[in-house]
Design goal:
By secondary structure, this protein is an alpha/beta fold. The protein has 24 helices and 21 strands. It folds into four domains: 2-35 and 545-822, P-loop containing nucleotide triphosphate hydrolases (Rossmann fold); 56-76 and 525-540, no CATH class; 79-281, no CATH class; 290-504, no CATH class. The strands form four sheets. It has an eight-stranded mixed β-sheet with strand order 14-21-20-15-19-16-18-17, sandwiched between helices. Strands 3-2-10-5-6-7 form a six-stranded antiparallel β-sheet, with no helix packed on it. The protein has a four-stranded antiparallel β-sheet with strand order 11-12-1-13.
C-alpha cells in the first residue's frame, strides 16, 4: 500500500541517517511542498471533482432556469410575423434618348423603389391607413395568467359606441375594465381604480369621461369574466404601427415586401391589406390628378372659344341679312383657304404661347410640380418639355417622402434638391427658347397674312367683310374641335386609368417568432450553468478549508495514515456508531487500516507507545478518532488508556458502564487532590481505561507543564501498552505542544471542508522543524465523491482493499433499491 511505503520511508530515514539529517530532509521536503501548494496550475481532475461534488446544485440551478423558461414560453403572448408582397409598376419612365440624357441617373429604378418604400413607411400615409381601418377602440379579456386581445371588434361580447370632439382626446383616457352585473347593468372601473370603487351603469347609458362620451351595449357578456377596452387615435396608432412595420425593396423584381410584427395576426393581416390597397389608391389619385387638371384647363379655353363662335355666328347672320346679293365668292375661295390655314397656325401659336406663359409662371411660383399640366395634354407637341416635366414630378415625389420623414439633412435629399434645381433651370431655358422661336414663327405668319390681306383689300367691301367673318369662324371652329378632341382623350385616359401597382402576395402568417422555445431553453441552460459555475467558482475561490486528499498532499509532506468516510445516516458525531458496535462496517475497516499504519509509524512494539491526537481547531473529530483508535488498539489485546487532556472543551465517546463518567479526572490529579487510582475509570470494553478531563481549571497549560504530568505518564507506562492522549487543538492553544514531548507519535486530524488550509501549512512547518515526533494525518469525514473522483479510489477506508459489510439502510435510496433487486 502507498501509505505504508510513505510511513516506512519516513521512519527508516529517521533511524538510519539520524535526527539532524532527517530534520534537513524534512525542511527541504516542506519547502518543496509549500512552493507546490502555491502553484495554481490547471488541474482537470480537480475541476471534475468540484463539478461532481456540486452536481446536485448544478442540476438544481439548471432546473430552476429551465422552469422559468418554460413558464415564460408557455404563458407569454405569442408574437407573429405577417408578410405580403406588392409589385410596383412605373409607366411614367421614358426610354427616349432625351429622357436618358436629362435623367442624370442610370439607377432610377433603385432610387424610385427606395422612395416608394419610404413613402409607405411615412407617418402621413400610415395615419391615413389607420383612419381607414377605424381602430379607435381596442377590446380584451383578462385571464388568470395573461390578457387576451379580442379582434375583430365584432367578436367582442360588448360594443363601445364613442362620441368624441377630437381624436387627440382619446389618448388621455385610461384603460377601462367591465364586469357583467345583471341583464341590465354592468360595473366599470379604470386602470387606476379597484373593484371596490366600481361604478354601476345601465347598458346604453351615456358615460362621460373628460371630453369624451361613450355608450356600452351588451351582446353576450359572461358573468364573472372581466373584460376591458381602451381608446386610441390614428396619430398614436400610426406611431405604434410604424415601430413594428418593416418594408424593403427587391429592385430586380420591382417588389416591395412588407412585414408586420404583432400579437394579433388577424389585425396585422388587415393592416397590411389596407396598406397595399391605400397605396394603390394613392397611385390612382396621383395618376388622375394630371387628367383632372388638363380637363380644367381645356374647359376654360373651350368656354372662351365657344363665346367667340357664338358672336361670329351672329355677325354672319346679320351680314347675310343686310347683304342679300354678294358676288365673287368663288373668286376669293383660294385666298380664303390660304388665309384660314395661316390663321389656324397663328391661333395655335397663340394658345401655345398662353400655355408656355402658364407653365413658366407655375414653375417660378410653385415648389410642387405634381400639379403641372403636360404639353401633350393640351395639344402642344414638345417632347423635351414632357420629359423634363416627368422627371421633375418623379423627383418631387421622392423629395416629399424624405420631408415627411423629417430628414431634411439627408444626403440623398440634398442630391435630389440639386437635381431638381438643375432640371428646373433646364426646363425654364427650354421654354423661353421655345417661346422665342414661336414668336419668330408668329411674325412670319403675320407677314404672310398681311400679304393676303392686301390681296383681299382689292375685293369689293361686302365680299371682303364676309371673307373675314368666315375666316374667324373657321379658325375658332377648328380650334374648338381640337380642344374637344383633347378633352375627350383626357376623359378617356382618366376613366381608363389602371393601377400601376398590384398585390402580388396577400398577407401570410409566417408563424410565431416569439416566444422561441428553443432559444429560451438554450438561454436557460446557459444561464443555469453560468450561475451554478459562477457560484461554485466564487465558493472555491474564497474557500479556505481542505477539501480533497490531493490538496493535503500538495500542502503537506506529512504521511497520511488513512481516511474516515462521512456517515450519511447520522447527522451528529455522537450518534455515529463506534468501531466495536459495527465491526464489519466501513468505519471499522478504516480504523483497522489506520491502526496498522500507526504501528509502522511508531516502530517499536516492545515498549509502551504514547500516541498524541490533535487537530487544528475544534469540531474536526479529534475526540471521535481518539475513541475509535483507542478501541481499535484495545481490541488487539493490548492494555490501552485514553487521557482526555482537552480540559477546556472535553468530549467523551468511549462507552462507560451505565454511561457515567467520573467528575474527577486529569485536572484533579494534576493539582494533587486525587491519586491515580481515583481518576482512572474502566470502560465497558476490555483492555480499555480512560482518564477524563475532570473539572475545567483556570490554568490548563500550567498544569500540563508541571511535574505531576511527568509522573502520570511514567506511572501509566508501567501498566499500559498504549497511552492515547486526546489533546486540545494544536492551532488554538499551546497545550498540544507541551504534551508533544511525551508522544512517540502524533496523529493530526484533518476534516474535509473544516480544517483551514493555513492551519495545515502551520502543521507542515512544525513537521519540518521536528517539533513533534512521527507525525501522521487522518483525513476525517470524507465524502465518497471526494475520494472516487479526485483522490485515492472507492468508498470507505483507504483504498478498496479489505472485506466488510455495510447495512442497506446506510446506503443511498437508489442503491438500496438495487441491493433489494439483487437479493
Amino acid at each position: 500500500m502507498d501509505i505504508q511505503q510513505d510511513v516506512i520511508t519516513v521512519s527508516s530515514s529517521s533511524n538510519v541517517n539520524g535526527q539532524s539529517q532527517g530534520q534537513a530532509t524534512n525542511k527541504q521536503n516542506s519547502q518543496s511542498i509549500l512552493s507546490k501548494s502555491n502553484d495554481d496550475s490547471f488541474n482537470p481532475k480537480k475541476i471534475l471533482y468540484i463539478l461532481w461534488k456540486n452536481k446536485f446544485f448544478i442540476v438544481f440551478c439548471i432546473g430552476v432556469a429551465i422552469s422559468i423558461a418554460w413558464w415564460k414560453t408557455y404563458y407569454a403572448t405569442p408574437i407573429y410575423t405577417i408578410g405580403a408582397s406588392l409589385q410596383v409598376k412605373d409607366n411614367r419612365q421614358s426610354s427616349s434618348p432625351v429622357a436618358l440624357l436629362y435623367s442624370q441617373d442610370m439607377f432610377g429604378d433603385s432610387k424610385r423603389l427606395s422612395a416608394e418604400v419610404k413613402f409607405i413607411r411615412s407617418y402621413p400615409f400610415i395615419k391615413r391607413v389607420c383612419e381607414k381601418m377605424d381602430l379607435r377602440v381596442y377590446y380584451y379579456q383578462e385571464g388568470n395568467i395573461r390578457t387576451t386581445e379580442i379582434y375583430p371588434a365584432q367578436h367582442a361580447p360588448f360594443e363601445v359606441i364613442i362620441n368624441i370632439d377630437a381624436d387627440s382626446n382619446l389618448v388621455e383616457l385610461p384603460n377601462y375594465k367591465i364586469k357583467f352585473e345583471d341583464e341590465k347593468t354592468f360595473l366599470l372601473i379604470n386602470s387606476h381604480e379597484e373593484w371596490e370603487s366600481a361604478r354601476s351603469y345601465k347598458f346604453g347609458e351615456t358615460i362621460s369621461e373628460s371630453s369624451t362620451t361613450f355608450k356600452i351595449l351588451n351582446k353576450n357578456l359572461i358573468k364573472e369574466t372581466i373584460y376591458g377596452f381602451y381608446f386610441t387615435n390614428p396619430s398614436s396608432l400610426a406611431r405604434n404601427f410604424l415601430g413594428r412595420l418593416s418594408a424593403y425593396a427587391e429592385e430586380d423584381a420591382s417588389l416591395i415586401r412588407l412585414n408586420l410584427v404583432s400579437s394579433v395576426p388577424e389585425r396585422a393581416s388587415d393592416f397590411i391589406t389596407t396598406v397595399m390597397q391605400e397605396y394603390i389608391a394613392y397611385g390612382l389619385e396621383d395618376k388622375n390628378l394630371e387628367a383632372v387638371r388638363t380637363i380644367d384647363f381645356i374647359d376654360k379655353q373651350l368656354s372662351q372659344i365657344r363665346d367667340s363662335l357664338f358672336l361670329i355666328e351672329d355677325k354672319i347672320q346679320n351680314f347675310k341679312s343686310n347683304n342679300k346679293f354678294i358676288v365673287g365668292e368663288d373668286a376669293i375661295g383660294r385666298n380664303l383657304e390660304q388665309y384660314t390655314s395661316l390663321e389656324e397656325e397663328s391661333r395655335k401659336l397663340q394658345m401655345k404661347s398662353k400655355y408656355l406663359d402658364y407653365l413658366i409662371t407655375y414653375i417660378k411660383e410653385n415648389d410642387n410640380y405634381k400639379g403641372i399640366t403636360t404639353p401633350t395634354a393640351v395639344g402642344v407637341e414638345d417632347g423635351m418639355a414632357n420629359t423634363l416635366i416627368g422627371r421633375l414630378v418623379d423627383l418631387q415625389i421622392q423629395r416629399e417622402v424624405f420631408l415627411e420623414k423629417g430628414s431634411s439633412k439627408n444626403p440623398f435629399l440634398v442630391e435630389i434638391n440639386i437635381e431638381i434645381d438643375k432640371i428646373r433651370e433646364s426646363l425654364l431655358e427650354h421654354l423661353n427658347n421655345t417661346k422665342l422661336n414661336d414668336k419668330i414663327a408668329a411674325e412670319d405668319i403675320k407677314s404672310r397674312i398681311n400679304i393676303l390681306n392686301n390681296q383681299m383689300n382689292s375685293l369689293p367691301s361686302a365680299e371682303r367683310k364676309l371673307v373675314n367673318i368666315n375666316r374667324l369662324y373657321t379658325i375658332n371652329e377648328e380650334i374648338y374641335i381640337l380642344l374637344l378632341n383633347k378633352r375627350m382623350e383626357a376623359s378617356i385616359a382618366q376613366a381608363a386609368a389602371r393601377e400601376e401597382s398590384q398585390i402580388l402576395e396577400p398577407p401570410f402568417n409566417y408563424g410565431a417568432i416569439s416566444p422561441n422555445a428553443t432559444q429560451n431553453y438554450t438561454i436557460a441552460l446557459l444561464v443555469g450553468l453560468f450561475i451554478s459555475f459562477g457560484f461554485i467558482y466564487l465558493k472555491n475561490y474564497f474557500r479556505n478549508t481542505i477539501e480533497t486528499l490531493d490538496e493535503i498532499k500538495s500542502i503537506s509532506s506529512v504521511p497520511i495514515l488513512g481516511l474516515v468516510t462521512h456517515s450519511k445516516k447520522k447527522k451528529q458525531v455522537k450518534n455515529t456508531p463506534l468501531v466495536h458496535e459495527q465491526p464489519k462496517s466501513a468505519l471499522a475497516e478504516a480504523f483497522r487500516s489506520i491502526r496498522s499504519n500507526l504501528l509502522f509509524l511508531m516502530g517499536r512494539v516492545d515498549k509502551t507507545n504514547t500516541l498524541m491526537i490533535s487537530s487544528s481547531i475544534s469540531g474536526e473529530g479529534k475526540s471521535f478518532c481518539s475513541a475509535n483508535i483507542s478501541i481499535s488498539l484495545a481490541s488487539t489485546g493490548k492494555r490501552t488508556v485514553l487521557i482526555v487532556a482537552d480540559m477546556r472543551k472535553p468530549q467523551m465517546y468511549v462507552p462507560m458502564p451505565n454511561d457515567k463518567y467520573n467528575k474527577d479526572g486529569l485536572s484533579t490529579y494534576l493539582i494533587g487532590s486525587k491519586n491515580l487510582d481515583e481518576v482512572i475509570q474502566s470502560t465497558s470494553l476490555e483492555n480499555l481505561d480512560v482518564i477524563s478531563s475532570g473539572a475545567v481549571p483556570p490554568n490548563p497549560a500550567e498544569l500540563l507543564m508541571g511535574v505531576a504530568m511527568d509522573e502520570l505518564i511514567e506511572k501509566l507506562k508501567k501498566h499500559y501498552d498504549y497511552i492515547i492522549i486526546d489533546t486540545p487543538p494544536l492551532g488554538l492553544v499551546s497545550d498540544a505542544l507541551i504534551l508533544g514531548k511525551y508522544a512517540d507519535a502524533t496523529v493530526y486530524i484533518v476534516r474535509q471542508d473544516r480544517t483551514p488550509i493555513e492551519k495545515l501549512k502551520g502543521l507542515e512547518r512544525i513537521y519540518a522543524e521536528q517539533m513533534l515526533q512521527n507525525v501522521g494525518i487522518i483525513f476525517n469525514d470524507v465524502k465518497a465523491q471526494g475520494v472516487g473522483v479526485y483522490g485515492y479510489g472507492s468508498y470507505g477506508g483507504y483504498g478498496s482493499y479489505g472485506y466488510y459489510e455495510v447495512n442497506d439502510t446506510d446506503l443511498p435510496w437508489w442503491k438500496q433499491i438495487i441491493s433489494k433487486i439483487k437479493k
